[in-house]
């Protein structure tokens, strides 16, 4: 790789979450537990959606992909993070670091845009129910999904390209538990305001565009709900959106807190804690949010277990 040849650094050491020896094993067990819950929850939701035909509708098509993204996202980050708790030096090659950065950015952008696609789905379902089947046809859903993953590729290529051509001279200790954008930029010898500007612009697109789409969708949804005369009808409409609102708040809140503040306001050590939310907590909670608060998913779960018990 050309970038690697221009740097004296061929590998990085990930500092991890903490350097306190007494916390290493407890944190290893804690995050291993988080990862197991994430894997079981997301793969369980993927399996439920695939096995139950009454969940083969646009809403659960996007939820299926959200679970797939969350499972892949956590798998790209947590196993390497766990190594920092049980090894003296958590070493990652230059190529491995750039690969992790690429997939990290890909899944973050994909999750941002899949959440906005889900908001659009709710908008059509509540505001134009008679046209829902036509508007959210399989072809339309597929096009939306291609847009989601297309933006994922854009974000990954833009961020990784911005970092991969930097020069890393001597210091190879990354002050993070993963290869993230800001710690790598801080480590480089020739990072400039242009690199910071590129990061800010790309992050603004990745967070700003989906947030605007979500706010517009929910603006129309709120307007339609307020026009419903019965309290029961309003309550039912709100309940269909509540899980999505919680997921959006968790993901975008933690992401904006991490990346849309200057480093002087949010030091990297605090940034590591903040990034735990969208890299570990959000992928773990999403399947819980959508299963515990969703009648269709709970019904599918009962049917699946009933079928297994009957067999």
TrEMBL record:
GO CC field: plasma membrane
Residues that span the membrane, as ranges: 27-48, 60-79, 91-120, 141-168, 193-226, 238-260, 275-293
InterPro entries, sorted: GPCR_Rhodpsn (IPR000276), GPCR_Rhodpsn_7TM (IPR017452), Olfact_rcpt (IPR000725)
Keywords tagged on the record: Cell membrane, G-protein coupled receptor, Membrane, Olfaction, Receptor, Sensory transduction, Transducer, Transmembrane, Transmembrane helix
Sample GO molecular function, one term: olfactory receptor activity
Membrane topology term: Multi-pass membrane protein
All residue ranges annotated as the G-protein coupled receptors family 1 profile domain in the record: 41-290
The keyword Ribosomal protein is annotated on this UniProt entry: no
Main location group: membrane
Pfam families named in the record: 7tm_4
Location in the cell: Cell membrane
Superkingdom of the organism of origin: Eukaryota
Transcription regulation found in the keyword field: no
Family membership: Belongs to the G-protein coupled receptor 1 family.
Protein name per its UniProtKB record: Olfactory receptor
